[in-house]
């Protein structure tokens, strides 16, 4: 596409990705149902037909945004599975990678976490989320079997609590603040894997058995 | 009030608390804004004026529900402060107590966690939540100073991640399931304070320094 064609497809700066970014922000602010194509057009300073040039429907915008978040998370699990690391180290990679996806795709992940399954697009996204959760739970169970993670907590509870901690980051993280993604990922790993408590001599003796 | 008077104040089974329970469930299901007094009246099988006999407005119902959740959480912090325990042990009590409040007041806490500050009642609830967060953060900082919690993570990040884990329980916990409040509280404490990783001999040597 030449620059001229690009100009004719909408106002400069609003290609497909630009429309998507503005739409996701509006969905997070007002809710998906409450954000009409008319509201989006107004926010973008475009006609509705200019938006329809890029997306067949509001549902397609939602689907694309949720796919951004889900593809990122799925890639993290798939990449970890390619390594020959112990399960506990692959879990470390997954938790760390998930924090990065969350920070780098904050608006899309925020949208994903609010999906309740009201439409077919939302239900498909929830099914992919459940599949992701299952893969993480399987990884926790594998690490428990190999003896590198404590096995006195149900693997699905571990997976839910660890992701509860990670997902809560969308509630308070603001880009450009004191913490960057690497620092946050270090904090999550430190708490989830090693805990907050300083070892007392008692505990170390207990560990040494 | 005699039983007869009680009957005249509404259908049997719907005293003030009964109305509150049904209203909170509806707010969580449809959202507060989308739930009108008419919808509530229909759900309860009462006239709107029968509801107004117990609550001056929809806002008062919301305020009461949020107060249930907030008072529970505030009592947990206040009770822990009365003990002479070390800060790390008081934090243990607070995290454990918060899981109990969450499980026992699941609908009210769910409602609290969704509040975005759209009304004066919501803004007052958010201010109380921030105050609670500050007290937890201060407790974490105190435990870090006394040397019982690791101090390489910012106290407010610790507090946010720990409560991210706890608050996420509203997303998946269903009363009557396999886990009860005590078991869940044990799991949260185990992960947050001691971590998931089994000690390796290397790590124990490192701890013994």
TrEMBL record, chains A, B:
SUPFAM superfamilies per record: Homeodomain-like, Tetracyclin repressor-like, C-terminal domain
Entry GO MF terms: DNA-binding transcription factor activity; transcription cis-regulatory region binding
Alphabetical list of InterPro entries matching this protein: Homeodomain-like_sf, HTH-type_TetR-like_transc_reg, HTH_TetR, KstR2_TetR_C, Tet_transcr_reg_TetR-rel_C_sf
Superkingdom of origin: Bacteria
PANTHER family xrefs: HTH-TYPE TRANSCRIPTIONAL REGULATOR BETI, HTH-TYPE TRANSCRIPTIONAL REGULATOR RUTR
Keyword Transmembrane: no
The protein's name in its UniProt record: TetR family transcriptional regulator
Domain HTH tetR-type residues, every copy: 13-73
Keywords: DNA-binding, Transcription, Transcription regulation
Organism of this sequence: Agromyces mediolanus
Coiled coil spans: none
DNA-binding region: 36-55
């Amino acid at each position: 596409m030449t620059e001229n064609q690009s100009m004719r497809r909408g106002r400069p700066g609003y290609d497909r990705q630009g429309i998507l970014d503005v739409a996701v922000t509006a969905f997070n602010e007002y809710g998906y149902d409450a954000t009409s194509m008319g509201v989006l057009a107004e926010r973008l300073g475009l006609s509705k037909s200019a938006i329809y040039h890029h997306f067949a429907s509001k549902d397609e915008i939602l689907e694309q945004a949720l796919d951004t978040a889900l593809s990122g998370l799925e890639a993290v699990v798939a990449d970890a599975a390619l390594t020959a690391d112990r399960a506990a180290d692959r879990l470390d990679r997954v938790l760390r990678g998930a924090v990065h996806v969350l920070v780098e795709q904050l608006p899309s992940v925020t949208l994903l976490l609010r999906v309740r399954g009201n439409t077919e697009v939302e239900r498909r996204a929830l099914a992919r989320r459940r599949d992701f959760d299952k893969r993480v739970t399987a990884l926790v169970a594998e690490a428990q079997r190999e003896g590198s993670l404590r096995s006195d907590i149900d693997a699905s509870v571990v997976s839910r609590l660890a992701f509860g901690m990670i997902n809560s980051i969308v509630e308070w993280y603001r880009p450009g603040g004191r913490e960057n993604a690497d620092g946050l990922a270090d904090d999550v790993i430190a708490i989830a894997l090693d805990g907050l408590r300083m070892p007392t001599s008692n505990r170390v003796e207990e560990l040494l058995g």
